[in-house]
Structure formats: structure tokens, C-alpha cells
């Protein structure tokens, strides 16, 4: 039985849990469209997405692109896709090693849908450099603090995490065509909201980020849905749409 990357789920179980979300939120894709996954791992999320699109909407011939930071995962993804594992006539465009915060090799306004299956949060934004158990305890204690120093550190931690997410998502928005979906799955809440996850951003971040970071996102398009997979308590998915129309955009990297 196939595994879903390295998260401990079987591929079939995870596909079942993500089926309705993907069938609905990826439904605008058409035959021959180009899809990009930021931080694509070994490619199983892309394969799953194409399977669901084929099964529900009879969409075929999707061209997949992506990047992954870990070279070994890039090699695995390319090896799988080069051996014809992509379903429904799907074709590999290019899967490259790269940092999701700096996709300088990827053109602007190029893809019909851009998504990430998971944005890895900063796991130690305040740089305590402790072992995992001690680090959990340190951040848990900080979140419970009430004095002015602790509140300032919590604010600093939240801002650093939000800046990290914003840079990652800004690149996803840049490479999406105007008017198309930009999707982030499995978003972790902030560490002070959900202490047993690695930390992330709370739901109010996405609305504020449009103005704070100058995202070319239609704020009325932002929708969120709680994750039902049980992967981690409190996680959620985000759907947004890049603003348009097309004539307002250029095809260079000066966005």
C-alpha cells in the first residue's frame, strides 16, 4: 500500500479524507491546464489531486510542476513521474529543487492553479535552540505567560511566523495567473492557539495579509474549511483567488 509522503497516513486513507475538499476546490481545472505545487514532497499530493479530478470531473492531461527543498524528495518525485505514475494522461512539466520562499526560477502569471499541501512553519522562531521536548515546554510556558516581557515575545513570535508564511504565499500568488485559485492545505494554527502542533498562523491572518503584504488577492474570495482528516487538531485549509483582470498584469518577474 502506498504511503502519503512521510506523514504516517496510507495514501488511500488520506485521499479519502481529502476527496471532497479537492473535488470542490480544484474543480475549475480543465484538460491541459498547468498546476503548481509549492513544497511538493515526493509528489503524492499531486498524483492524488489528478486522480480525484479525473474521477469526479473527467479532467485529463494536466501538466504538473512543483518545487521541493529536499533534494532526495525531488529525485523521488521525478523518478515516480518519469515512470508514468501520473494518472489520467497527466504530464510532468518540471519538478525542481528550490526554496518555496524564493521561486526566482519560476515565471510570473504562469499557472492555472497554485497550491501547497503544507507550509512548514518556523519550528523555533525565537531561536532557543533546544531539544524538541524542551522546546515544546519553553513555548508552552511562554504562551501561558502574562507579564509584559512574555507578551512582547509572543507578539514577536507571531509576527515572525506570519512573515514566513507571507513570503511563501507571496511567491505562490506571483506565479498564479490572474483570477485563478491559490490554495493552502493543512495550515497549522499559531502555537499559542494549538499547543500540540508545530505552530503556524491563525485564520484572521489571511484577511489581514492582503493589505499588510500587498497580496494581489481578492479578499472576498478567501474561504477556509477545517481539516477533517484528524492529521492534527485545529488545522484548516485556505482557498483564495488571485485578483485580475489579465490585462492588469505583465509576464515578467517585477511583480
Detailed description of the structure:
- The protein is of the alpha/beta class.
- Helices cover 36% and strands 15% of the residues.
- The chain has 6 helices and 7 strands, in the order αβαβαββααβαββ.
- The chain has helices spanning 11-25, 44-57, 71-82, 132-144, 148-175, 204-212, and strands at 34-38, 63-68, 91-97, 113-116, 181-187, 223-226, 236-241.
- A 7-stranded mixed sheet has the order 3-2-1-4-5-7-6, with helices on both faces.
- Helix 2 (44-57) links the parallel strand 1 and strand 2.
- Helix 1 (11-25) crosses helix 2 (44-57).
- The radius of gyration is 18 Å and the shape is globular.
- The N and C termini lie far apart (43 Å).
- The model is unreliable at 249-255 (pLDDT under 50).
Short description:
The protein is of the alpha/beta class and 255 residues long.
Question: What is the strand and helix layout of this fold?
Answer:
Elements: H1 11-25, E1 34-38, H2 44-57, E2 63-68, H3 71-82, E3 91-97, E4 113-116, H4 132-144, H5 148-175, E5 181-187, H6 204-212, E6 223-226, E7 236-241
Parallel strand pairs: 1-2, 1-4, 2-3, 4-5
Antiparallel strand pairs: 5-7, 6-7
Helix pairs in contact: 1-2
